[in-house]
Write a structure and sequence with these properties.
GO molecular function: lyase activity
Pfam family, one: MR_MLE_C
CATH class of the largest domain: Alpha Beta
Strand content: 15-25%
CATH architecture of the largest domain: Alpha-Beta Barrel
Largest sheet: 9 strands, mixed
CATH topology of the largest domain: TIM Barrel
Protein name: Mandelate racemase
Keywords: Lyase
Number of domains: 2
Order of helices and strands: EEEHHHHHEHEHEHEHEHEHEHEHEEH
């Protein structure tokens, strides 16, 4: 039988106002956006993906229009033999378009969401959960359980949030830092609250210069931090990262702001990062992150998928981690987000620091939850007949 063609592209934007902003060292989120994409082929099979849209504030609606008005003509009518074929095709076909407007990031985000949708469709067609479909033998034992950690915690809120998340079942916690000079003392307090078997990680969100990062490392040298994430800008010279890895006693982590197979390969080979953190909604989708994750684990690093968005991307991250394996952990944002929690399986209760994955086909998502319809800001679609292909 001929391979089915992609016949329909749909994208749905949502935005949830929040009473407690989510703070990072570089800015504050005053709403939680979500961009979800659905692909349907000529056999009626479908798949769901998620497109990164946390930044800038108007990014969600922009990416939806970018998909429908600038990229869908390259999607509709395609006959991918394997789910990753579409991503490789689009990566080549959109290069000049992205170059022309200087929007490498938004193009990569859209392609990532499309790739996840293709993998969801492929696994659904096979009748397998995505993590099983990605596993090398295809019949790994289940149900899968993956280690997880509580994330999105402002360091100043740690003394209140850590006990709450421990009660929920978490045994690892990541706090956001990079705000002021009081943080070494706050971290010492939080480390003193840890119980046996628990760990604390930190994320500076690219807050510091090299000298500031070195000073932080010196001030916290005696603390048992599991890792220090993005202490300097992700695109800092490699010699800066090398110097940090030699001088700071804490393992370094990064990856959410790395894009491109060559850059991930270089980051893995350099030896400066102990933890590699690609984001399935920002670059590569399932195809790219699977390659980066497996390469990281093979090189002796931890693969810990970064994610701070809606339910589809979180589920895709969990399935990727289950398929890749290794000593990684799933990032679970603990801030309220209906665009995550309304999805079946996307708000799991950790048991001793690990969460279980569903064995439902694909990502286990049939449709967008009706509870999030009131947050919708935009819905666009395009079919093959409209595209004239």
């Amino acid at each position: 039988m001929p391979t089915p063609t992609i016949e329909h592209v749909e994208v749905f934007c949502h935005r949830v106002p929040i009473s407690a902003p989510v703070s990072t060292s570089f800015g504050i989120m005053t709403s939680r956006p979500g961009v979800f994409v659905r692909l349907t082929d000529s056999d009626g099979a479908f798949g769901w993906g998620e497109i990164f849209a946390n930044w800038p504030a108007a990014g969600a609606e922009h990416r939806a229009r970018l998909l429908i008005e600038d990229i869908s003509d390259l999607v509709l009518g395609q006959r991918p033999e394997a789910p990753g074929d579409l991503w490789h095709h689009l990566d080549r076909a959109t290069r000049i378009r992205a170059l022309q407007c200087g929007e490498w990031g938004p193009f990569a985000h859209v392609l990532a969401g499309l790739d996840t949708a293709m993998h969801d469709m492929d696994a659904r067609r096979a009748g397998l959960a995505l993590w099983r479909h990605l596993a090398a033998d295809g019949d790994a034992p289940g149900p899968a359980r993956v280690p997880a950690y509580a994330s999105g915690i402002h360091v100043a809120d740690g003394t209140r949030t850590l006990p709450r998340e421990r009660a929920r079942g978490h045994r690892a916690f990541k706090v956001k830092i990079g705000f002021d000079a009081s943080e070494p003392a706050l971290l010492e307090t939080l480390c003193g609250m840890l119980e046996p078997g628990e760990s604390l990680m930190t994320d500076a969100n690219q807050a510091w210069t090299l000298d500031e990062a070195l000073a932080f490392g010196e001030a916290t040298a005696g603390l048992p931090l599991r890792w220090l994430e993005e202490p300097i800008a992700a695109d800092s010279p490699d010699e800066h990262w090398q110097r940090l890895s030699r001088a700071i006693p804490h393992p370094l982590a990064a990856g959410e702001n790395i894009a491109g197979a060559a850059d991930f390969a270089a980051a893995t080979a350099s030896g400066t990062l102990a933890v590699i953190q690609p984001d399935v909604a920002k670059w590569g989708g399932v195809t790219g992150c699977l390659i980066a994750g497996r390469a990281a684990v093979a090189a002796g690093h931890s693969y810990c998928p970064h994610f701070l968005g809606g339910g589809i991307g979180l589920l895709a991250s969990a399935h990727l981690l289950a398929a890749v394996g290794g000593p990684g952990a799933l990032e679970m944002d603990v801030n309220p987000n209906p665009l995550r929690d309304a999805f079946p399986g996307a708000d799991p209760v950790p048991v001793e620091g690990a969460v279980a994955l569903s064995d439902a086909p694909g990502l286990g998502i049939e449709a967008l939850p009706p509870e999030i319809a009131r947050y919708r800001t935009l819905a666009l679609s395009r079919s093959r007949s409209q595209a004239g292909t």
